[in-house]
């Protein structure tokens, strides 16, 4: 096993001592999850602060924007889904399966995340995109093309074997983010979490990301976690968190028409952007 695979495996799995890496036989078959229905049912974690008894359910392959003023509330969504922290009450299910009963390796191998800070390791570009060598070069190049990176990578010394530095030093923030999108695409999961980038990337890259997800992740349920409501007006529905609870959950147009909290947050964002430009 290469050093990159060992590092990636350690990062992605990080198995707590009290958790099993594998699921009981039959609980998480290779086809699970198939529909990507994510349901939080009165769910609360050990995180502090944490959304209090969070309850919502996505539809099959639905794209949902999750908006909150609090970054901690958004972090709790990712932490809950990947079981970086365990729940203390309620249940979190994917396709009707309680994820607390699924082994961590099985669970995390079935989910994908485009994280706030791109995670890239000191090994070849190819190993970063496909750490377990599940895909042929042709599939990797196809994924790069779909993520608008084929031309850029073809110009790198060694191309797929180009040695990346830790964190992707030497690449632009947009390129690092798109590489993580490419890795998620190759993973082929049906549940995708997208976090706002830090630092923010340019508007062109974010629109490109939205286009890639719309076209090539149509089979996925997508959760877009953001403090900027303007980033999720394109999603099927928008879930607004306020004080640790679901304040609103509807399509963006309906929320804007009724002058709801989502509308207020959007106005606040526009005012703040206008102030910064002055």
From TrEMBL:
Keyword Nucleotide-binding applies: yes
SUPFAM superfamilies attached to this UniProt entry: P-loop containing nucleoside triphosphate hydrolases
GO MF entries: ATP binding; ATPase-coupled transmembrane transporter activity
Record keywords: ATP-binding, Nucleotide-binding
Highest taxon in the source lineage: Eukaryota
A single cellular component GO annotation: membrane
Keyword Nucleotide-binding: yes
PANTHER family named in the record: ATP-BINDING CASSETTE SUB-FAMILY C
Descriptive protein name: Uncharacterized protein
UniProt lineage: Eukaryota, Metazoa, Chordata, Craniata, Vertebrata
């Amino acid at each position: 096993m290469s050093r990159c695979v060992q590092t990636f495996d350690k990062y992605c799995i990080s198995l707590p001592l009290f958790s099993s890496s594998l699921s009981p036989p039959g609980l998480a078959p290779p086809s699970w999850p198939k529909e990507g229905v994510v349901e939080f049912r009165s769910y609360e974690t050990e995180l502090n602060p944490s959304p209090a008894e969070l309850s919502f359910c996505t539809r099959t392959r639905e794209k949902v924007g999750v908006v909150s003023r609090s970054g901690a509330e958004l972090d709790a969504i990712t932490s809950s889904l990947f079981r970086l922290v365990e729940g203390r009450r309620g249940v979190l299910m994917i396709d009707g399966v309680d994820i607390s009963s699924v082994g961590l390796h099985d669970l995390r191998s079935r989910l994908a995340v485009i994280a706030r800070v791109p995670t890239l390791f000191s090994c070849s570009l190819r190993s970063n995109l496909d750490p377990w060598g599940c895909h042929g070069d042709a599939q990797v190049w196809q994924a790069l093309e779909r993520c608008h990176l084929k031309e850029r990578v073809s110009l790198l010394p060694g191309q797929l074997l180009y040695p990346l530095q830790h964190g992707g030093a030497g690449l632009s923030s947009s390129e690092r983010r798109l590489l993580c999108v490419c890795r998620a695409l190759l993973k082929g999961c049906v549940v995708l979490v997208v976090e706002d980038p830090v630092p923010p990337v340019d508007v062109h890259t974010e629109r490109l990301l939205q286009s890639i997800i719309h076209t090539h992740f149509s089979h996925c349920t997508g959760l877009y976690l953001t403090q900027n409501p303007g980033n999720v007006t394109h999603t099927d529905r928008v879930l607004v968190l306020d004080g640790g609870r679901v304040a609103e959950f509807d399509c963006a147009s309906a929320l804007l028409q009724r002058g709801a909290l989502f509308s207020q947050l959007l106005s606040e964002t526009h005012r703040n952007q206008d102030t910064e430009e002055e």
